[in-house]
Amino acid sequence: MNVTLPSFLFFSIPSLVYWYFSKRKGLPRAEIFLRLGWTRGTSRYYWWAIGLGLFLAAVGTLVFYSGVIPHDFYKTQGTGAVYYATWHASISTFFLALLREAIVVALGEEVFFRGFLGGLLMRKFGFVKGNAIQLLLFLLPHLPIVFLLSARIWPLAMLSVTSFGWIAGWLRHRSTSIFPGWIMHSLGNATGALLAMSH
Q1: Is the whole-model pTM more than 0.70?
Q2: Which GO molecular-function terms appear in the entry (predicted)?
Q3: Which of 80, 107, 114, 128 lies in disulfide reach of 2, CB 3.0 to 4.6 Å?
Q4: b/e map of 52-91 (b: 16 or more CB within 10 Å)?
Q5: Residue of 47, 163, 164, 181 lying closest to 119 (CA atoms)
Q6: Are 131 and 121 in contact (CB under 8 A)?
């Protein structure tokens, strides 16, 4: 999903409102941050996030080099790929893309979908049902991009988004933090950006 900095700010509003009213009710700051996933979390899940991010990047790379993705996908307006298609692939541009994806795209989505919504839904319905609802809500704004793709690959894109959304929710639940999912999200998006540069 190709979003801009105002979108990141927009994604943060529900969490900030929740923080404000919870604080006024006298809820301890540590409890508010725990509910929103704004904690350091359990350290081993950072390793899980890096491993899963690298695994998803490897799968994406295999798909890219299999020739399944049509060449005109990188000219499709509304996708992140079109933004990076004119960049020259290098180590420095990969890290620039990683920084951009981490701050402009992934952080806002993790704050909202896994932190605010995921936390609320998993507390109310338990992990399985709460994470499934979070996943469906995460999928909704990605559907226009998925259906912009050719008929050959939109099922693969759907599988990719749903798998990612579920795993990110699992990381949030197990680690009590949005940050492992943020790392995985950023790595996955940056790898996609690098592949777009290399098309």
Answers
A1: yes
A2: metallopeptidase activity
A3: 80
A4: bbeebbeebeebbeeeebeeebbeeeebbbeebbebebee
A5: 181
A6: yes
